[in-house]
């Protein structure tokens, strides 16, 4: 089932939670709504479910305008953050609930409901727990029951609100893989909300990055990581370093120093240079690079993170070096980002220029591949 | 028996750096024993002195049986009424916002705070044939004051807060997500209330019922003014105890008291069972 | 590089205002159902709670303020008021001390039989007030060993003030302890351990650490205890002997006046007790509203 969100806005008591959001979700897709808290991702999910009414805009399920449909009529499977299992019902009764409350005309028989519940329990790998109560299950098991319950009504769309938020890291990783498997097997159009970028990037076909009630970017994990289209996305997904620079005649300057990066079709003036700390090449100093004094050096897992003070204004940036890199011991380091992105210095979000647009980027990519093959 | 408890407590308590255990527990147990346990055990002792035949004679005396039946019957009806309206009041107070809600919420405790004698004479005057409500009901042929119906009215009054105050916290803690989950699964609002919310609060409602019932059975002050106190018709068991005492018939009073105590303790036990069962099965207590 | 669906999206049905139909949250009822339920609930409360309260005041002033004041000024009434205050002044502090001691032992320590002890403390709540009085009649009445011995030594318990105090202590026994036990259990022993590690004595720890933590809960319990102590009828009625001017508390005096068909006087004395109830409720609500977190939210009665 395609889901189409068209210019939807939502206000809570005058406080805007979503501004004019539009999004097309393709049938069978697994989509992540990713953003910090307060970005409106859960509100968007609840609007799709019909748990909230949009202040403006419409939501289409296929060709049908679902905006007027009540939550009961929408037939969506919703998995709540804290599972919301019915405490006084057994696992089987929980899963069968959606079938049991159907009007008599299309309600399956008791036996059939029981059979379907067992089937779904097999699917979520909890066979044999039919007669347990939710209080007798672990967090991960409750999560699976909640999913089975949502699947029981053969939903048109499956919606999950922070599905792994309340679980510990180990169970989270397991359930993540498992959810992907279930999705591939059942083929439901699935939307899930998360604030964990690792979860979103690993699990989803496409990631919707949200911030302050707006969609910042929609794309595959590669898109949002390699080609972020706003400073927010660049900063929110993965590590990033920023330097304030100046554009003059297509060259980037850090104070009075040309840093070896050239851009085309960018007006002169101040700008922000974004790059990934690990995606830099070290140089021998001299011209055409960024040089800085090492102020701190920390070992973080498999890499060494070096903090530099750069230029007269002592801007701080971080870069990552291989642990055994000889330069890491020096007190001054010169480097240049391999890939980077230039955004206007203040206010604007549209990218001014990036490595992949120019030939330099292609060269860098070739270099990267070379490094990988060595 | 109690000294045994204290002795065990002393020996088997977990070590702690906090002082005052011996002093406070000793005082607690001594005070409890003097004020509550010794006097209460007097009832058991006196009953045993009676001998089984005499005890049975008093217990099966027509007037005793009638009084007990009236006490328990009226309490049962009142507690059932309170279950319905108490749950409704708790629901309205928790779920809806309306002007004066806070005051209404506070007013629910009035039966706890208002002395029973005051409630008794006030209810009697309202439901008397020439009272505010009584004169409305009189033309319909309904007599409330000085009939068993009056007893039920008084018991509804004193039992109401028990149900409201037991159900209220559970409703407050109830997760809205659960109701939303029911809705996304296709349940209408009515189905959600009947199949999800009400069964969910059932342990609390049951506890509230038991508390209201237990309190009603022993109630004296608010009932005697409105009941009319006609032997065999509207005479409650606690009143019969008082009457036997006034006749200096200690044996009679003790036997009735013993029966009531046994039933009260059975109620207390039942309440604990409900709560233990609910905790074990659902992971929460009503 | 692919263009985002978001930016280049076609919009066939341009954003139209969402639905003029009425949307109801899935977690609430329709306005009509709401109105009906509120009306039934409030109607029930008005009939069963508010009406009796109003009736007390109206009946008391039925024959004007003069009669009302005259009824209150009677010597027997004044004696009843004095006795009620005296009884409360003895019973409440006794149960206060007991409540604090019991809560300290039960909440701050782990020991065998704790659950049983807690059940015993609640016992008076499940005993009929009449039986609470009866137990003292059996203990001190004629025919009991203790009663005979005390009589021989000229000590009157039954049908005298000590009996009334004892019966009152019995019925108000659990109030303070009940409020404090859950509250102090919630607070744990961390604060006390900290104070002790800093060199405070046991008493100092209680005085400067524990007491400030429980003061509102304590006040709450005392408030409820006092309301019950002044209003108790059944238990006191059994042990008092109803001697006018001597062993009549206010509730008992109300009964006597009522049975003498002196309704105005009965209701006049009742207004005092009803006012006490109202003050208790206001004070109690204020404590719940203002210090709700510092009063155990679990036990409300």
UniProtKB/TrEMBL annotation, chain A:
Entries under CDD domains matching the protein: ABC_CysA_sulfate_importer
GO cellular component assignments: ATP-binding cassette (ABC) transporter complex
Alphabetized GO MF terms: ABC-type sulfate transporter activity; ATP binding; ATP hydrolysis activity
InterPro entries for this protein: AAA+_ATPase (IPR003593), ABC_SmlMolc_Importer (IPR050093), ABC_transporter-like_ATP-bd (IPR003439), ABC_transporter-like_CS (IPR017871), Mo/tungstate-bd_C_term_dom (IPR008995), P-loop_NTPase (IPR027417), Sulph_transpt1 (IPR005666), TOBE-like (IPR024765)
Keyword vocabulary terms for this entry: ATP-binding, Cell membrane, Membrane, Nucleotide-binding, Sulfate transport, Translocase, Transport
Domain ABC transporter: 3-237
GO terms (BP aspect): quaternary ammonium group transport
Family statement: Belongs to the ABC transporter superfamily.
Protein name stated in the entry: Sulfate transport system ATP-binding protein
Highest classification ranks of the organism: Bacteria, Pseudomonadati, Pseudomonadota, Alphaproteobacteria, Hyphomicrobiales
Automatic annotation (TrEMBL), chain B:
Domain ABC transmembrane type-1: start-end pairs: 68-269
Pfam family for this entry, one: BPD_transp_1
Superkingdom per UniProt: Bacteria
Keywords per UniProt: Membrane, Sulfate transport, Transmembrane, Transmembrane helix, Transport
Membrane topology: Multi-pass membrane protein
Matches recorded under InterPro entries: CysT_permease, MetI-like, MetI-like_sf, Sulph_transpt2
Keyword Membrane: yes
CDD domains, alphabetized: TM_PBP2
Family: Belongs to the binding-protein-dependent transport system permease family. CysTW subfamily.
Subunit comment: The complex is composed of two ATP-binding proteins (CysA), two transmembrane proteins (CysT and CysW) and a solute-binding protein (CysP).
Job description of the protein: Part of the ABC transporter complex CysAWTP (TC 3.A.1.6.1) involved in sulfate/thiosulfate import. Probably responsible for the translocation of the substrate across the membrane.
UniProt name for this protein: Sulfate transport system permease protein CysT
UniProtKB/TrEMBL annotation, chain C:
Record's keyword terms, sorted: Cell inner membrane, Cell membrane, Membrane, Sulfate transport, Transmembrane, Transmembrane helix, Transport
Major subcellular site: membrane
Gene3D superfamilies linked: MetI-like
Annotated signal peptide: none
GO molecular function term, any single one: ABC-type sulfate transporter activity
Keyword Membrane: yes
Regions crossing the membrane: 35-58, 79-107, 127-150, 157-177, 261-283
ABC transmembrane type-1 domain ranges (all copies): 81-282
Low complexity bias locations: 10-21
CDD domains assigned: TM_PBP2
Membrane topology: Multi-pass membrane protein
InterPro entries named in the record: CysW_permease, MetI-like, MetI-like_sf, Sulph_transpt2
A Gene Ontology cellular-component term: plasma membrane
Region of interest: Disordered: 1-22
Pfam families xrefs: BPD_transp_1
Annotated localization: Cell inner membrane
Assembly information from the UniProt record: The complex is composed of two ATP-binding proteins (CysA), two transmembrane proteins (CysT and CysW) and a solute-binding protein (CysP).
Function of the molecule: Part of the ABC transporter complex CysAWTP (TC 3.A.1.6.1) involved in sulfate/thiosulfate import. Probably responsible for the translocation of the substrate across the membrane.
Record's protein name: Sulfate transport system permease protein CysW
């Amino acid at each position: 089932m395609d889901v189409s969100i068209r210019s939807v806005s939502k206000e809570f008591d005058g406080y805007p939670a979503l501004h004019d959001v539009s999004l097309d979700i393709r049938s069978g897709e697994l989509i992540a709504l990713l953003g910090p808290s307060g970005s409106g991702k859960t509100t968007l999910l609840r609007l799709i479910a019909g748990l909230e009414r949009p202040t403006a805009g419409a939501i289409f399920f296929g060709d049908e305008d679902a905006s007027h449909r009540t939550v009961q009529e929408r037939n969506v499977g919703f998995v709540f953050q804290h599972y919301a299992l019915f405490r006084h019902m057994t696992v089987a009764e929980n899963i069968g609930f959606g079938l049991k409350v159907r009007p008599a005309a299309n309600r399956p028989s008791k036996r059939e409901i029981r059979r379907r519940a067992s089937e779904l329990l097999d699917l979520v790998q909890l066979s044999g727990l039919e007669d347990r109560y939710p209080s007798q299950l672990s967090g991960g098991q409750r999560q699976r029951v909640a999913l089975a319950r949502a699947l029981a009504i053969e939903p048109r769309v499956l919606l999950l609100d922070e599905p792994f938020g309340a679980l510990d890291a180990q169970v989270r990783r397991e359930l993540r893989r498992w959810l992907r498997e279930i999705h591939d097997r059942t083929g439901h159009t699935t939307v899930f909300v998360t604030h964990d970028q690792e979860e979103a990037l690993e699990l989803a076909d496409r990631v919707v990055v949200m911030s302050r009630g707006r969609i910042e970017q929609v794309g595959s994990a590669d898109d949002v990581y390699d080609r972020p289209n706003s400073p927010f996305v660049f900063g929110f997904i993965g590590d990033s370093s920023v330097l304030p620079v100046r554009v003059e005649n297509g060259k980037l300057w850090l104070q009075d120093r040309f840093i070896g990066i050239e851009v085309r079709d960018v007006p002169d003036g101040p700008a922000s240079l974004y790059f990934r700390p690990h995606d830099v090449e070290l140089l021998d100093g001299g011209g055409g690079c960024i040089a800085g004094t090492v102020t701190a050096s920390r070992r973080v897992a498999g890499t060494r993170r070096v903090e530099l003070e750069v230029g007269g204004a002592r801007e701080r940036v971080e870069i990552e070096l291989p642990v055994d890199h000889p330069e890491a011991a020096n007190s001054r380091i010169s480097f240049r980002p391999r890939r980077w992105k230039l955004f206007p210095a203040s206010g604007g979000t549209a990218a001014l220029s990036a490595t992949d647009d120019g030939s330099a980027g292609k060269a860098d990519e070739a270099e990267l591949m070379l490094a990988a093959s060595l | 028996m109690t000294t045994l408890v204290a002795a065990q407590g002393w020996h088997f308590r977990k070590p702690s750096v906090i002082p005052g255990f011996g002093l406070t527990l000793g005082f607690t147990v001594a005070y409890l024993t003097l004020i509550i346990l010794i006097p209460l055990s007097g009832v058991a002792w006196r009953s045993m002195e009676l001998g089984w035949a005499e005890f049975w004679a008093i217990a099966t005396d027509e007037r005793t049986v009638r009084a007990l039946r009236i006490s328990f019957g009226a309490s049962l009806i009142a507690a059932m009424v309170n279950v319905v309206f108490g749950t409704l009041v708790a629901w309205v107070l928790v779920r809806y916002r309306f002007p004066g809600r806070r005051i209404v919420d506070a007013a629910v405790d009035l039966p706890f705070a208002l002395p029973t004698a005051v409630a008794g004479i006030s209810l009697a005057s309202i439901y008397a044939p020439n009272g505010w409500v009584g004169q409305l009901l009189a033309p319909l042929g309904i007599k409330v004051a000085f009939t068993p119906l009056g007893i039920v009215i008084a018991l509804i009054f004193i039992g109401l807060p028990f149900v409201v105050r037991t159900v209220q916290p559970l409703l407050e803690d109830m997760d809205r997500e659960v109701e939303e989950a029911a809705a996304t699964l296709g349940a209408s609002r009515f189905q959600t209330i009947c199949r999800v919310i009400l069964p969910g609060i059932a342990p609390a409602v049951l506890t509230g019922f038991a508390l209201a019932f237990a309190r009603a059975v022993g109630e004296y002050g608010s009932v005697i003014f409105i009941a009319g106190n006609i032997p065999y018709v509207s005479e409650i068991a606690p009143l019969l105890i008082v009457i036997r005492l006034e006749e200096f018939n200690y044996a009679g009073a003790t036997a009735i008291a013993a029966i009531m105590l046994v039933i009260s303790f059975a109620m207390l036990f039942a309440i604990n069972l409900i709560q233990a069962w609910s905790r074990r099965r659902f992971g929460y207590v009503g | 590089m692919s263009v985002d669906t978001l930016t280049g999206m076609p919009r066939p049905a341009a954003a139209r205002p969402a639905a003029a139909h009425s949307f109801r949250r899935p977690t609430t009822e329709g306005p009509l159902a709401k109105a009906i339920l509120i009306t039934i609930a409030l109607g029930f409360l008005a009939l069963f709670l508010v009406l009796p309260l109003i009736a007390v005041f109206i009946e008391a002033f039925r024959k004007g303020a003069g009669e009302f004041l005259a009824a209150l000024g009677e010597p027997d009434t004044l004696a009843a008021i004095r006795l009620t205050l005296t009884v409360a002044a003895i019973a409440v502090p006794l149960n206060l001390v007991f409540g604090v001691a019991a809560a300290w032992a039960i909440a701050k320590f782990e020991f065998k039989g704790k659950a049983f002890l807690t059940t015993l403390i609640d016992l008076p709540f499940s005993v009929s007030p009449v039986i609470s009085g009866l137990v003292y009649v059996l203990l001190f009445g004629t025919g009991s060993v203790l009663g005979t011995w005390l009589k021989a030594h000229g000590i009157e318990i039954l049908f005298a003030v000590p009996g009334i105090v004892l019966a009152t202590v019995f019925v108000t026994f659990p109030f303070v302890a009940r409020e404090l036990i859950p509250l102090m259990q919630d607070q744990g022993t961390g604060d006390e351990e900290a104070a002790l590690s800093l060199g405070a004595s046991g008493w100092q720890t209680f005085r400067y650490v524990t007491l400030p933590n429980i003061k509102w809960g304590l006040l709450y319990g005392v408030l409820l205890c006092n309301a019950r102590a002044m209003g108790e009828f059944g238990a006191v009625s059994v042990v008092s002997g109803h001697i006018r001017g001597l062993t009549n508390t206010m509730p008992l005096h109300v009964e006597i006046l009522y049975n003498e068909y002196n309704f105005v006087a009965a209701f006049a004395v009742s207004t005092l007790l009803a006012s006490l109830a109202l003050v208790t409720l206001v004070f109690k609500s204020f404590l719940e509203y203002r210090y709700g977190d510092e009063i155990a939210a679990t036990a409300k009665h």
